[in-house]
Amino acid sequence: MAPPTPQIVRVIDLETTGNAPPAHGVCEIGWQDVALQPDGRWELEGEGGSILVNPGRAIPPITQAIHHILDEQVADAPWWHDVARRVLDPYPRRLALAAHRADFEQQFCTPNLTHGAEWICTWKCALRLWPDSPSFSNQVLRYWRKPQGLDHDRGLPIHRAFPDAYVTAFHLRDQLNEASLAQLLDWSRTPGLIPRVRYGPDRGKEWRELDHDTLMAFLTDRDPDIRFTANHEMDRRRGGGNVGRASAQELLL
C-alpha cells in the first residue's frame, strides 16, 4: 500500500499593487508546503510555485520598484478569484496557512477564499522563539539563522512571491520543529510580543529593564504590538508570563 499523503501547512506570499484592498489587488501569489513526516518532524515538500494574477488595475511605479512586476506581464493573467481557492485550499491535506506577517496576506486571502483556514504568522512566532535576532524580517532571519538546506539562489529574487514563500517555509519548518502547531497558531492569534523596545531613549532595552513610569507610557502606544507587549510585561511583574524567549511550558502547549 502507498504511504498516506502527509498533512501540510501551506506557506503563502503575495505581491500586490498596494497595502489596502479593495483599492489594491494581488498581482502574484506564491506557495511552498511544509509537511508532517511519519517520524513527527516537519520538512519542506514539493516544488511550490507561483502564479501571476491580473490585479484589475495599474501597478503603481512605487510598487513596481519593489517587486518589478510590469503591467504588461499580468495583462493576460487570470483574475484573483479564479486562482485563489485552488492555491489556498489544498483539501484535505491542509492543516493551516502561513505567511511572514500574515496579517497582510489575510487582507487579500479572506475566509471565503481559504475555506476558513487558520493562519500561522512566522514573524510573530519568530519574536517568541528567536528573540535574539537583530531583526525579524524574512530576509534578516534568513541570513542570521542560515536554515539548513536553504538553496540561496532558489530564495531569490526577494520580493517575488515564490522565493519569499520558499524562505519563509524554512522558518516555519524550524518553528514547527521547536514548538507545537497548536502553540504557533495560538501565538499567531495575538499581537506580536516585541523582545526589545523599538524607539525612544530606551531603544534596544529589554522590557524588564524599564522603570514603572516608562513602561506605563507604552500601555497607550498607537502600535498594537507595543501595547500588547507592555501589558504582557506588566502582567509578568504581577507574577505571570514572560516577555522574550518562550518557556518550555509554552512550547509544549
Automatic annotation (TrEMBL):
Pfam families found in the cross-reference section: RNase_T (PF00929)
Gene3D superfamilies in the record: Ribonuclease H-like superfamily/Ribonuclease H (3.30.420.10)
Keyword entries, A-Z: Exonuclease, Hydrolase, Nuclease
A GO BP annotation: DNA metabolic process
InterPro entries: Ribonucl_H, RNaseH-like_sf, RNaseH_sf
UniProt entry tagged with the keyword Nuclease: yes
GO MF terms, alphabetically ordered: exonuclease activity; nucleic acid binding
Highest taxon of source: Bacteria
Coiled-coil positions: none
CDD domains registered for this protein in UniProt: DEDDh (cd06127)
Record's keyword annotation contains Hydrolase: yes
Domain Exonuclease: 8-181
Region annotated Disordered, chain positions: 234-253
Protein name from the UniProt record: 3'-5' exonuclease
